[in-house]
Specification:
With 323 residues, the chain is mainly alpha-helical. It has helices at residues 51-55, 68-76, 80-93, 98-110, 114-127, 132-144, 148-161, 166-178, 182-195, 200-212, 216-229, 234-246, 250-263, 268-277, 290-322. The protein has 2 domains: 43-179, Tetratricopeptide repeat domain (Serine Threonine Protein Phosphatase 5, Tetratricopeptide repeat, Alpha Horseshoe), CATH 1.25.40.10; 197-308, Serine Threonine Protein Phosphatase 5, Tetratricopeptide repeat (Alpha Horseshoe), CATH 1.25.40.10. It contains 15 helices and no strands. It is globular, with a radius of gyration of 22 Å.
């Protein structure tokens, strides 16, 4: 399989409509998979600018009555309404700094005002058309407001600036998922994982797609590895439990749901799943080695990488022969 950015592989047949949701940047949105619910939580976190990014901006902050640092501190402290007010004031004093508008957009998004968020990200992009973080985070807002086609355009623009971006590939997968372009979504998540074999969110999302394809056996190794990397995630534990339950491993599924509730006692989906699977545990004599499954998936990722290298070598040879 080639994971060249300009060639998305067609990996599977089109699926029935899926419902996707936001990631860990906002509260997870869930979707039901038959009688065994798995959780859509795509794990796309909004990112703050680094000090170097702000300081090297062509129009870096200047001293004002409202400082950038104070406004960012409010955001970092999750005082989002206060951050909105502070960054609104800051952008009025320093209108030519794209990072101020970017942070105004993030704060507005977190405060529940998607329209202001988009307007602020757009202003940052007007000042700096190559502002990747504004492209990616405005795409997240567009996805949350059911505008996947518009989001996809922004993700693709961001990917043109940095093709080998795990963050961009995860968002690409999410946008394709929302547009019911499931083979392309699978390809994007696989490319993200091949780029970073510790990308547990991409693994979770890929595993969820396989569950919805009724391919829970294929989802098991992926979700086992995701849980290995992030064992305290109730989302990952719940999805692993769903895959285990779907493949008849009721005792292991029960343990996964219990672990999800241990991580978050209010996680209603796992509570319902635990009640559903418990009566089947006594009749379950199956065994499953989750550690071995995780190792199996790591080997699969290496095969993806090897296929990428082989494909790139063939392409390079062909290009050379045509010169």
């Amino acid at each position: 399989m080639s994971f060249r950015p300009s060639h998305l592989a067609i990996l599977a047949a089109a699926l029935a409509p899926l419902t996707a949701g936001c990631g860990d940047a906002k509260r997870p949105v869930t979707t039901t998979v038959s009688s065994s619910p798995a959780t859509v939580a795509v794990g796309d976190s909004a990112s703050l600018p680094t000090a170097r990014e702000v300081s090297t901006s062509p129009t870096a902050p200047v001293p004002t009555a409202v400082s950038y640092a104070d406004a960012e501190a409010a955001y970092a402290g999750r005082k989002y309404d206060e951050a909105v007010d502070l960054f609104a004031a800051y952008t009025r004093s320093s209108p030519e700094n794209p990072w101020g508008h970017y942070m105004y957009g993030l704060s507005s998004w977190k405060a529940g005002d998607p329209e202001q968020a988009i307007a602020s990200f757009d202003e940052a992009l007007r000042l700096d058309p190559q502002h990747r973080k504004s492209l990616l985070n405005s795409a997240r807002v567009l996805l949350e407001t059911s505008q996947p086609r518009e989001a996809l355009a922004r993700v693709e623009q961001a990917m043109s600036l940095e093709p080998l971006s795990g963050e961009g590939l995860r968002l690409l997968g999410r946008a394709r998922y929302e547009l019911k372009q499931i083979p392309e979504a699978i390809d994007a998540y696989q490319r993200a994982i091949a780029l970073d074999d510790r990308d547990s969110w991409a693994m979770n999302n890929l595993g969820l797609i396989y569950i919805q394809q009724e391919r829970s056996d294929a989802a098991l190794p992926i979700l086992a590895r995701a849980v290995e990397l992030r064992s305290n995630s109730p989302v990952f534990r719940n999805n692993l439990g769903t895959a285990l339950e779907r493949t008849g491993h009721f005792a292991a599924a029960k343990q996964a749901y219990e672990a999800a509730l241990a991580a978050d006692s209010t996680y209603g989906k796992s509570a319902a799943s635990l009640a559903r699977v418990t009566p089947h545990v006594e009749s379950d004599s199956s065994t499953v080695d989750l550690a071995a499954l995780g190792t199996e998936f790591q080997a699969e990722v290496q095969r993806w990488r090897d296929a990428t290298v082989d494909s790139d070598s063939v392409t390079a040879a062909t290009d050379s022969a045509m010169e």
